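Good day; I would like, with your permission, to put a structural problem before you. A protein sequence and the structure tokens that stand for its backbone fold form the material at issue. Thank you for your consideration; the sequence and its tokens are set out here:
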Amino acid sequence: MTLSSALQVGRSAIVASQAALQVAGNNMANVATEGFHRRSVHLAPVQGELVGRNQYIGRGVDIVQIRREVDTALQARFRDAVSDEQAGLVDQRFLTAIETIQGELTDNDLSTQLSDFFNAFSEAANNPSDNAVRSVVIEQGRSIATRIADLQRDYTGVRAEIDRGLGAAVDAADDLLDQIAAVNREITLAEPGVGEAASLRDQRDLLIDQLSQYMEVDVIEHESGSVDVLVNSIPVLLAGNSRGVSLDIKTVDGEVEVRVRVKEDGTHLTVNSGQIGGLLRQRDDSTVGPSITALDDLATQLIHQVNKVHAQGQGLIGFESVKGAYLMNDSSANLNSTDADLPFRTENGSFFIHLTHQDTGQRTSYRIDVDGDAMSADDLINEINVAVGVPNVTASLTFDRAFQLDADAGYEMTFSDDTSGVLSALGINTFFTGEGAADIDVNERLRDNPALLALGGNHVPGSNDTAVAIAGLQDVPVDELGGVSLRSFWQNSVNEMAVKGKAASAAAESASLVRESLGAQIQSVSGVSLDEESINLLMYQRQFQAAARFITVIDEALQILISLA
């Protein structure tokens, strides 16, 4: 080995130690930089030089690789944990919001108001002729209608908040995909088949981590250094091309449907995790959608069950004219058909119209047979006016296609024994108006004249039959509600939300712990330790000093040789 070769050994040591010092310094400089992965210098001895038979002597050190310390499998698990945590936090947030809106532990909760409403009828049964008591019943009806409408409005407000959140989250995810695609292109240009553009790769990894907050992602890397990003096997980014994501919003049967799709070809994405997955689940499947449905089912059946009983009862006075609360779309269509568009079904049965002469008090009764599957509103009008020919009463349709009955001057009408449910279906002599939670209200005729409130039955003066029947509805099983009572149905719905809320809080806490644990593992692999880097600095400093001293010694030896020449 020549002295010139020895100088190269020292030179290689100085170059390697300088590079290692720079890497350690760069690590320490970025100890607090988000997304930075620790770099490590990997050294290897240069292939030895043959100096004798089978005798080799080293020729220094070479820098094999300056590498980012990354565990890709751990990174993928961490991103899944981030997605799960964000989805869990969304679940927790909106389930808590629904519980707060319901306020079941307050004095204004719907369960209490349901009880107060039915209890008002029970109290009225004790003194059905007192107009003050009747007014209390009507006010309780208005109170529960207002509470239901307020709940529905608040639920809709939460859904609107979710829709705004979805729009912002999808836009943010789409922007991140564009940024990742741009960095992908930079990486393929910066890595000509060897080495790695570490800073660009850190930037891309950080962007993908941020994307995982919005949706679950799978990342596939290519030899070129670029990556593909997939969501449930559907590519949303291919190398340097972002396929983009957007919201697909459309109305189907009066309901607004929101889905996420790929911009490029319209493919619908199934997003189950991340903020987007959590928001979609809360909107339709888990919280807000079921809450709105449960409230609407409760309101619909409250209207229907109370009206069925009230419509065949009698107040202190009868009607000179009564207009149905529901408008028909087609009066020639069968009452139960979708073309008629009535909110409640009419069974095969009958009801009685009672006509009372106001001066003499003489009452006559007329039975009207009804078949909702075969009769239209026009047929019912003909039945009353012609077939039965109820005298001094005229059935007709208003200009807006509501059913109306008018008694001649000096007469008033009352109703009873409606086995068909047609009176409540048309909105005749009903307590409530509306079809569900959004429009439930107390009949304006009752608000204007409490004497029309039907508390009695069988035309018996002082009767409380209808009041007792309505009071008992709170505990009567309703087939349309799965065979449970109105009160039980609502309490079951509230309890279900409470259980979901508790489970969501536990799941969110668990997901956060998993994410924190995986984050700590990533830090142990990729994070910068100042203590470790300080030790490296001292080691490489010593290496540099030793190499410099070695070169000095070799230089002195060369000077001696030169002086001897």
Observations:
- The chain is about 50% helix and 20% strand.
- Residues 20 and 149 are 70 Å apart (CA to CA).
